[in-house]
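If your schedule permits, I should be very grateful for your opinion on a structural question. Please examine both parts with care and let me know of anything in them that strikes you as inconsistent. The record follows directly beneath this note:
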Amino acid sequence: MATVDEKFLGRSGIADDYVRNFDAVREFYAHDYHAEDWSAAIDTVKAFEHPRTHVARILAEQNGKFGSGEKSLANAEKLANGDCYAIVTGQQVGILTGPLYTVYKAITAIRLAETLSRRHGTGFVPVFWMASNDHDFNEVSHVNLFDGENNLHSFTYDPASPPDGRPMNRIQMDETFGNLIREIKNSIPAADFNSAVFELVEESYSTGAGISDGFARMMARLFGKYGLVLLDPSAPELLRLAAPVVEKEIRNPLKSTEHANNAVERLTLAGYKPQVEKSAARTALFLEDEDGIRRPLGYRDGRFVTAGANLSFSENELLELLNDKPGRFSPNVLLRSVVQDHLLPTAAYVAGPSEIAYFAQMKTVYEMFGVPQPIIFPRISMTLLAGQTAELLEDIGADAIDLAAGPQELFSRLVLEKLSDDVERLTAEPGRQIDDIMENLSETLAAFDAGLRDATEPVRRKIAHQIETLRRKILKVGRRKNQDLKHRIDKVYKRVFPGGAPQERVLNVTSFLAEYGFEFIDRLYEASDIFSDQHQVLNL
């Protein structure tokens, strides 16, 4: 594997300093993941009273339902042990697992859990937190794949009944999802493993199953052999176990929002752009109404109110509702990770760039709830070069790093390299001769009259400008004669930066599975270097 330019990472601002220059951002984070010894952070997690036994039982039941396999079930049960810790990552429950970075997060968590188990002589279990409570359907309703003509195509699930703000765990697949899968099958290139992959897809996303269940079944098939434990936080029992966090938020309305907003001010003063900006009148909770629609819970004039539903509660009324129906409550972005780490003995959370930035606002929120904040560990970042893509890059004499600047700049550079001898021959020597002539003329004129020494300079500049104009004309002709090279660069750029964005943020894993089979996951697992802070390129 090779490493490529930072532009592929999608990491900037505080997320980049977190990885490259931790001392500059130390005040915003509880731990430094670069440290060789994580023992102190792990001890804080051990000292907290997590509901281990209950959570382990629920996870074993969930993973049994998802078909996760024996290793995942055994790992779920291990979490009941006081000397076992979770390496957590998570993502929205995207169609067919969503963008490639979902897969990279899972692999990072698995590899990190294995490494820490060896280093510390105790158990670390990889856990994937599925954001099944999330209600942003537009974020997860599509999957991006290349069609048979090498064009990026976005396939969108458009259910017969609009989701209308319902969380993912309440949205079921209907007959229109089958139409979507048939469209994908008919559009993507024929490959050796198409049949096996779409058999998995159809089994996972059967009509009547929920979107989050389909995601879980597919992830279980891909990562069960590695012991990945899947967690669906919408389970009523888990929501009841999270009730102490929700209760504290109700009894201290807007305090967590205040802490996060204070962090916004400090981050801004330090020159960073905050990841999350919240309204001062909104709590860190959602409340499902009687129709199952997830609504933000605000606080005004001593009352809790829901947006758009005109529901209003006193503190006691809301606490009674929490006691009776905890499943109607769910955390928003400010409280989600706190609930996660209240339930799980989380030693580390595997995060993407935006999540790293998000955790910079969360340190004092964790402190408010008395929950230990885990170490934040960056996920791997990758670009995959299939055979044809790798061959094209080699053919044009470039590397993946060269594509970061854009196809036009790479084309101009390669054309210049190809024409460098001609350009040098046609323009450099005449330019030097003219410089010599002007210098001699300047000295001759100065001997005639000292005031004329600089009279040749404007003439020299005009001639130099004309030579540069001639140089550009040569390059223009060169570009016109090298349109085939431009076509090849454009083709490979679309593969590495589909839609102009890094591959891992756009493409779905399905087409790679169809071409390389389920062993594709093994190749990613074996090739990835989770401790590298560089983007990695894998030739398939």
Notes: The chain has a mean pLDDT of 88. The longest helix spans residues 407-448. The CA atoms of residues 15 and 356 lie 6 Å apart.
